[in-house]
Hints:
The protein is α+β, with helices and mostly antiparallel strands.
Amino acid sequence: MKKIAIIGGGIIGLTLANYLDTxxxxxxxxxxxxGQATGASAGIISPWLSKRRNKKxxxxxxxxxxxxxxxxxxxxxxxxVYSKCGTxxxxxxxxxxxxxxxxxxxxxxxxxxxxxxxxxxxxTASYLPLLKPAPSLYVSGGGRLNGRSYLAHATxxxxxxxxxxxxxxxxxxxxxxxxxxxxxxxQITVDAVALTSGPFVxxxxxxxxxxxxxxxxKGQLLAFDTTYQTSQEWPVxxxxxxxxxxxxMNGQILIGATHENDGGWDLTPTQAAFDQxxxxxxxxxxxxxxxxxxxxxxxxxxxxxTSDFAPFFGPLxxxxxxxxxxxxSSGLTTxxxxxxxxxxxFNEGTWQADCYQKPIETYVQKNAEN
Length: 370
Ligand SMILES: Cc1cc2nc3c(=O)[nH]c(=O)nc-3n(C[C@H](O)[C@H](O)[C@H](O)COP(=O)(O)OP(=O)(O)OC[C@H]3O[C@@H](n4cnc5c(N)ncnc54)[C@H](O)[C@@H]3O)c2cc1C
């Protein structure tokens, strides 16, 4: 039986672990858990109205969102993990019409966008009572994924399939046609390795003599524990500006997230982020003080970005070395699908995902041997 090691147990690594054929492969996943983006994420799955012009990225994000019904079924995800709750977009009145037209246009190739409705001010507040009445656009296909619950659930499922999970930092070294994986208390030799370690693919690949175009970006968000009884029935609100409002089960309301390029690898929660997120939300709320006075905690994680903000994933020139990183702010949307595509590569031996990205050498190059 061939052995595969996965380095990094965020949304890509754990989805990959779940889709690998464990009757064919002996799978070990290493996850340090530090800096993880998936555990700190906001949870918005609603890529269709993005202003990004990168067509390959949009194709990936659209197909990533369309993949969710299969993911829900294959991994038996319940509403505490994923819910198709709908998305409300708040914009200036004159932008809403153009946005609705864009939504109708995109729906032709993405029927999963669902119903598209311009809401009156009162309808907006009745859909999501935390919001001040204001006109908005509603799309019923938007979803929310609880990154923390997904990790817990996918870990349980992977263990049940026989995947070994080791909560330690791993180092990878080439060993002829194989790979040596070393952590604090384990050393194993494997036939193939998948680096799904977010921005930490950089040191791992540099150690293997590659140059990598990736940088870390700090993201912080606020989680308020409230006594709202029906929060799980509310849609996600994408506000005009950087902050979004994501209602979860049991009254948990997230406000996120910051994008701090100069924060790099730092994981310290800051008062400046609290103030920025609260100020970015205040004008949209019916009663800001009622929410902001609730007990709050921070989620802080490190996103991975490339120079052109596009992800890269797939086999490198050594076909038994697979890498996936650079998912940026949309990795909950694209990550499960990327994990599935990587698993298909191992299970079936074919790679058919180049349509979603520039050649992987754009981001990862092997250095000349000295
Ligand atoms: C605040 C915030 C909000 C976000 N909101 C959204 C959103 O609403 N919608 C959306 O689509 N996306 C969102 N994202 C983006 C999304 O969360 C990420 O793009 C995605 O989770 C990245 O997943 P990943 O599996 O590539 O990496 P990660 O989740 O970062 O996982 C990588 C794992 O590898 C581990 N690791 C690293 N090095 C090693 C090593 N040497 N050995 C062992 N383990 C190692 C790390 O500890 C980590 O656990 C958000 C991100 C942040 C930070």
